[in-house]
What we know:
This protein has 416 residues and is mostly beta strands. The protein has one helix spanning 397-415; strands at residues 31-36, 39-43, 56-62, 69-78, 85-89, 97-100, 109-112, 115-121, 130-138, 149-154, 157-161, 173-180, 187-196, 208-212, 221-224, 233-236, 239-246, 259-267, 276-284, 286-290, 302-310, 316-325, 332-336, 345-349, 361-364, 367-373, 382-390. Strand 5 and strand 6 (97-100) form a beta hairpin.
Amino acid sequence: xxxxxxxxxxxxxxxxxxxxxxxxxxxxxxxxxxxxxxxxxxxxxxxxxxxxxxxxxxxxxxxxxxxxxxxxxxxxxxxxxxxxxxxxxxxxxxxxxxxxxxxxxxxxxxxxxxxxxxxxxxxxxxxxxxxxxxxxxxxxxxxxxxxxxxxxxxxxxxxxxxxxxxxxxxxxxxxxxxxxxxxxxxxxxxxxxxxxxxxxxxxxxxxxxxxxxxxxxxxxxxxxxxxxxxxxxxxxxxxxxxxxxxxxxxxxxxxxxxxxxxxxxxxxxxxxxxxxxxxxxxxxxxxxxxxxxxxxxxxxxxxxxxxxxxxxxxxxxxxxxxxxxxxxxxxxxxxxxxxxxxxxxxxxxxxxxxxxxxxxxxxxxxxxxxxxxxxxxxxxxxxxxxxxxxxxxxxxxxxxxxxxxxxxxxxxxxxx
Length: 416
C-alpha cells in the first residue's frame, strides 16, 4: 500500500514511483525457519539493502549426524550498535549464545555439536545494511566447556580461560572448574593474566569469576570482575574451585568482552591459619576500599590487607566510612599506622553500623594498612571506606596525644 497526503496550502511537483514484482520473500516477522544439511547462507531481510525495523527472526540449524561443530563466518556485517544484533546460540533453545553487533566484521565462531540457532533482532529505528552469514558443518572439535557443566582438573598447575578466549565469551553461560592438587600440596595460588568482564555499575558485577577455597559453594570465596587486574589470590589446602558466570545481555549493554585467563599453581607452603587471604597494594592520593562482593555479603574465613602508599610529602591519611555492617564482633576492620606492625593499630571496628569513632580516623605519614578478617560463620554486607592523603592536616587521636606529650616535654626543658 502506498499512501500520499497533502495539506491545505503550497504544492510542489510531487513524485513518481516505479514498482516491480519480485520473487524475493521476506521471512515473516517473529517466524522460524528449520534448516538442515551441511552448509548454507543466512541474510538479513532485503540484504544488501537496509533491513526492517522492529523485526525478529530465528533460524534453527540441524547438521548431519557425525558433525562435531558448526562454523559461522560473516562475509558482511553492519547493524545499529548495539540495538540491532545477531545472536548465535549453542543449541535450539535460548541457552548460551554469542552476540554480534556493530559495523566490524565478527570473527569466525564455532559452535560445538550439530545443533545451533541464529536469532536476528532490530529495534524501532535505525536500519542498516544487515549481514550475510555462512554456516558449515565441520568435523573440527570445538573445545568449549559445556554450559552449566563441570570440569575436573588435577596436577600441579594449569590455565583456565573463558569460552572463546581471547575473543568475546558467551552470554547466559556458566561453568565450574574443580581443582584437586597432588597429596602434600598445602596451598594453591591463582593469578589473572587478563580480566575483562561486564561491570556496568561498580561495585556490582554482571559477569564474574568466583574462586572458592574448596569444592563446595559454601566455602570461602572471592569475586573478580571488570577490567582491573586482581592481585594474586592464595587458598589453603589442595582443593579449590573456579566458577564463571555471564548474564543474559540486555540490548543496551551488548558489548564485547574478552573474558579472562587465569593461571593456577601449587605450593607446599602452608597458608597461615588455613584462611584464604589477599594483599592489594594501593598508591596515589585517594581511593575507596570495599569488602569483597560489596554491597552483597562477604565470604567466611577470609582476610584481606590493603597496603596504602600515598605520594611523597603526605603528612596524614584520613579514613571515612561510607557504609559498615559486619558480624559483631568477630568480623572486623583494623586500620594500622603503617604497613601492618601490630603495635601500630589505631582502631578496630566491627558491628552492624558505622561507629562514632570512624568520624576521625587519621594515620600519620604516607603509609597505612586496612585489614579485614572474617570468621567461619555469619556474613554481612561489609563496608565501604574512602581514604584521602593530605600534605597537611589533622593527626589522629593517638597521634594528637603523642604530639601534646612532645610539646609538654619541650616546655619543661625550656623552663629548666
